[in-house]
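Sharing a chain and its predicted structure for anyone who wants a worked example. Both blocks are below, sequence first, tokens second.
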Amino acid sequence: MQTQVRQRRDSWQSAALVTVVFVALLWVLEVVDTATGHALDPYGVQPRTEDGLIGVAVAPLLHFGFGHLVSNTVPVAVLGFLTLATGVARGLLASAIIWVVGGLGVWVFAQPGSNHAGASVLVFGWIVYLVVRGFLNRNGTEILIGVAVFLLYSGALLGVLPGQPGVSWQGHLFGAIGGFLAARVLTRRVTASAEAGWQDPPAPRRRW
């Protein structure tokens, strides 16, 4: 029992550390962007252009001004921590799936000539991931977290629909799709491990 409590505490501490470092990185990059006359803005996802593929890798780290970043900061901190808290390794893998699916979806399907950036692709992915994973895993704690997230952020999910000028609904939509895929893929991995008689190892402590 004490070992489980210690492992859970270590996982939460690691999740908090990674989340704080990630949020700090977003703010540092926006300070640099502002100080250089928004030199980083062109590195967002620019659909169906060769240079725009760079944005698949870096766009979730970039924002179009401090107002944009401020609106994303609290959701990133809350949802990022919850995604990592029940297993940092699994949370990082889920985030990577959301990151890639969201970026590639925007690059393929968004309107050419547009430029997409911001951590909201992760936010929408994390919302869907957190809501879905508990039911797929049949885990009581994760179901409760998912219900709480749905109650808090269900209104935000309307952002996957077009109609808001200047808002990348494509990023929101494909981020959400990435969150669902992450929940499905990682659930299969956990189930396969259990059927083979293996237990997931304690979440490793990772620093960014």
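Comments welcome. The chain has a mean pLDDT of 89.
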